[in-house]
Structure formats: C-alpha cells, structure tokens
Amino acid sequence: MKLNPAQLAEFEEQGYLFLPDVFDAEEIALLNGELPAIFAQQRPEVVREKGSEAPRTAFHVQTWNPVFERLARHPRLVEPGAQLLGSDELYMHQFKVNAKAAFDGAVWQWHQDYGTWAADDDMPQPRAMNIALFLAEANEFNGPLMFIPKSHRLGKLRAGHDVTTTSYPLWTIDHETITRLVAEGGIVAPKGAAGSMLLFHGNLVHASGSNLTPWSRWIVYLSLNRCDNAIRRFKRPTYIANRDFTPIAMLPDDCLTAYARERRPAAE
Amino acid sequence: MKLNPAQLAEFEEQGYLFLPDVFDAEEIALLNGELPAIFAQQRPEVVREKGSEAPRTAFHVQTWNPVFERLARHPRLVEPGAQLLGSDELYMHQFKVNAKAAFDGAVWQWHQDYGTWAADDDMPQPRAMNIALFLAEANEFNGPLMFIPKSHRLGKLRAGHDVTTTSYPLWTIDHETITRLVAEGGIVAPKGAAGSMLLFHGNLVHASGSNLTPWSRWIVYLSLNRCDNAIRRFKRPTYIANRDFTPIAMLPDDCLTAYARERRPAAE
C-alpha cells in the first residue's frame, strides 16, 4: 500500500492523513474477536481507567496475542510509515490497543506524543509517528481523536507532566498554548468505520474526550520510529517504550486472513 | 413566538425541538457580558467542577443579576413552554446557567430531569420541561447536549443516585437501559450558534461529555412547570428547586435591548 504524492503532501501540510476502508470486515472481526480476552487479563500491560475496572490501554499486545503479533508487522501499517519517515529501517517504539470503553472511557488531555517520547525516553528527533487503526467506528459521540491541524510544524512544545487527570501519566500542553494553536488551526476529529486508518506526526497536538455512549471506540496504535533515532533512556518499562530496536520485518498482506484459515477446523 | 403545528408534532414525536436564531447578537452580547461576574461570585448558587475552580452551574441567577432577571421572564422562552405544556399558568422550577467551561467542563451522566424532579422534589407529573438557550456555540467538540430521541415516551425510568461522578448529585440511568434505548433511538447532538434554543421534554434522556476545547459552551436552562403540578417536597434548596409557584408574568419581547438602552450613558 503506497501513499500517492497528494497524500504525502497532505500529511506534510496538515500533520495527519485519514484513510478509510484499509482493513476489511473479516480482518476487523478477527482482531475484535481477541479484544475481550485481551482486556480481561490482569497484567501490568493492561492499564485500567482511574477509579474503574474499565480497560484504558493494553500495551505490547504483540508479545502476548498471536493475532496482534501479526498486525504489528502488517504491511498496510508499516509501509506508509516507511514512506512518511523516509526509511525502510523502522522499529516499533510502542504498540497498544486503546479501549475508550463504552460509558467509562475517559479523556486524554492535549499532548504531542513526541513530547513524551523526548521527555521520558530521550528520543533524539521527532522522526517517529503513529499509525492508528480503528477497530470500531469513531463517531462524534464516542470520544474521537481531536487534532489541531498543522500544529506539528511548531516543533516540540513546552509541556507539563500530568499525573493526576487520568490513570496514565502524560506530558500535556497548557491551556494558553492550546487556545493560541486552536485559534490558528481549529480542531478536526476524523471519523469513520472500523477498518479506517489515521496516520499522524509525532508532533501533532491531539486529545480525546470522554465516551458516555454504549459504543466502545477501540483503536490500535503502532508508534513507528526510525532505527537511527532510537531512544536513549530506559526509564519506562519496555512494554511502554520498547528497547528492542530490531527493524520490523513485514509479513504478507494476507497475514491475518491466512492465520484465520490455518486455525479453522478442517472440513470433514 | 408561536410554534407551528409541525413543530408541535415534532416535539411530541422526538421529545425535543431545535430552534436556530431566536436571540440576536446584541441580546447575546448583553447576556454574555454578565457571565464573568456571575461565575466569579463565591456563593452557594455557584457550583464548581469537582477538583477545580472552574464554574459548573450558576443557579437562580434571576434573583441576583438584573439581565438574567429579565431573561427568566422572556416571552421567547416562556411562550413555547406554555404551548407545549398546555397551560398559561407556568412557574419556574429552576433557572441556571451551565458553563461547560473551556478545558475543565466535565460530564453530565445520562438522566431524565423529571427523574430528579420526582425523586427529590416530589413533582407529581412529567408536565414540566426545559427551555435551553445557547449563549455560546455548541459544536461537536465542546461537549454538546446528547439526546436519545423518543426516550421521553417511556415515562420515568428507574434511576440511581449518582453522588460521585461529578460535583452535582443526579439521578442517573444504568448502562443496560441506555444501551437498549440507544439501540432503538440512536443519539443526536443538536448543534448551533449562540442564540439558538433547544426545547426538551422532562422525560427525554440526555447527557453531555467533557469539554477539552478552548471554547466554553455556556447554556441557560429555564425549567418550566405547570402551576397545577407544583412540587410537594422541599428537600433541595429553593435556589435549586424553586418553592415560589407564582405564575410567570412575561415581559415584552424587547425587554433585553430596552434594559441595555436604559443603562447606556446619555449622549452629550
């Protein structure tokens, strides 16, 4: 899956790119079938919402779930990243499923991912980005991702360490700065069906609201980094900030459906 | 301002009615000019968000602000209520400004207002409703009101007393019921500019999400009740559940601009 020049230019200009219909219904059903068991696990990689048992994030799922192990090396996720980051030598800095669970999904305050990658992990340059795959519809009601377009052009912004708002500590950006950025760039919330993808720059300022609806808004994030931009501080656990800088070896495009076929009981 | 038969039928069917452009820019500017001083007051009527100094609600503003004193008797708010409730003898059960403040505005869980009016105030029948006036734009990002259309037809639903989620106790509806209602009716979030109005039935199930944006989503609520349906329990303070059942005497349609004219310094 190659991005065309118009798509590359749009990413450069806006800081993100929305791609509908990247994964089909069979692939999404296969991935979603794993989620109940993933979120049910009691292990450090599964972070719960503050004051609730609802899942917030399941980290490093590729090491403990065979379907997500394949997804983490899927060419439809990795190839666009290679194009946009200008290197075929990419490693996975982070891989997770965010639940934004029905009724209980809580906010993520305004932040740049690179802010956290730099402050906590000492990543040298913002040559890293996110590939997000919708496992459920994101609509206007269930806390979709909100972006401030073009904010990636401002470099790394000053941030404060928020350890109180939610269960997951984050380097967040102050209200005055957000007010100024929104006055310039506005806010967008790309919405779409399960199977859609959102690619966004490590410096793009984003947030997401609460989810009060009965519709969970599951999303997978593959954070790709260039191998020549590997992190230099190992403060966070490896399941949050991966210390294995081996380049990703992509699987075939049909790796998910092939896995499902292999596992299906043989016909009589 | 009279509602036409199609509007009356729509309210009956859906449980709400959205009316754009009811108040003009001059009137809205006059009302908004009062808000900073209103929200700055330290008094029991001004409720703050949990764990923050951000205002959540200012109750009973008509008794302590002269502009809102006029708004509470404005014919564009009261007349449609009289039509929909089928009586010219209406009193104000509650009058407030909800701030849904920029960055800090927190959620209101799914509830019916009549659920609280019945449980706390012993209001005999759901012959009461809300007239909401937008003092700021409500858009998809700043925590707009969410309705479950047609849910008013189910009567009063079982509710539990939520005293933990936010700073304001509310009788809220359980997740299982909401899931069922949304499967039937969906969710809508009427959006529009300052000056728009939303009329909704006391039994319409509604909620609103967090506001992470720099755009406060101020809204005035006039809760109208029929005088022959007055509350019978005085558990809550009168500034939350009004004990004065005097019928509202409407003011002229230009009462806001006339007030502004009177107060303007005379030309030399």
List the keywords.
3-stranded antiparallel beta sheet; 268 residues; 7-stranded antiparallel beta sheet; homodimer; alpha+beta
Distance between the termini of chain A: 37 Å
Number of DSSP E strands of chain A: 12
Mean pLDDT of chain A equals 96
The share of residues in extended strands of chain A comes to 15-25%
Strands of the widest sheet of chain A, in order across it, are 1-10-6-12-4-3-2
Cα radius of gyration of chain A in angstroms: 18 Å
Q: Largest interface, with Cβ-Cβ < 8 Å?
A: A-B, 24 and 24 residues
The helix content of chain A is 25-40%
Q: How many separate helices of chain A?
A: 7
SSE string of chain A, helix = H, strand = E? HEHEEHHEEHEEEEHEEEH
Which oligomerization state do the chains in this entry correspond to? homodimer
What global shape of chain A is seen? globular
Tell me what you see in this structure.
Two copies of one chain form a homodimer. Chain A is α+β, with helices and mostly antiparallel strands and 268 residues long. Chain A is 27% helix and 21% strand. The first copy, chain A, contains seven helices and twelve strands. Chain A has a seven-stranded antiparallel sheet with strand order 1-10-6-12-4-3-2. A three-stranded antiparallel sheet of chain A has the order 5-11-7, with helices on one face. Chain A has a two-stranded antiparallel sheet with strand order 8-9. The relative contact order of chain A is 0.25. The mean pLDDT of chain A is 96. At the A-B interface, α6 of A face α6 of B.
